[in-house]
Amino acid sequence: MSAASRRKGVGGEREVAAIFERNGWAVRGLEASGDHLCVHRNGVVLHSETKRQERLRLPEWLEQARNEAPEGVPPVVCFRQSRGQWYAVLTLDDLLELVG
Questions:
Q1: Which end of the chain is more exposed for a tag (fewer CB within 10 A), N or C?
Q2: Statement: residue 17 has pLDDT above 70
């Protein structure tokens, strides 16, 4: 990975963390990783995987997030392309569990 790509990725991780925080979530960086554990004041916990890439590879990213998420914590992939808006993707089962 080039230095420019890494800077873009780190910037994206900061953007997503700030969005979570503005919306009442505590964001904790996970050791040796760019991923975050996001904890809402209502007790909901998510594992956030952030991607800022032009080419979307959602199945690959979802698999990565699932493999890296702590046991019992739903993974969510937050992504955007340049100058685009942020999106969040999680499995339908996890969504239904969260909004239950």
A1: C
A2: yes
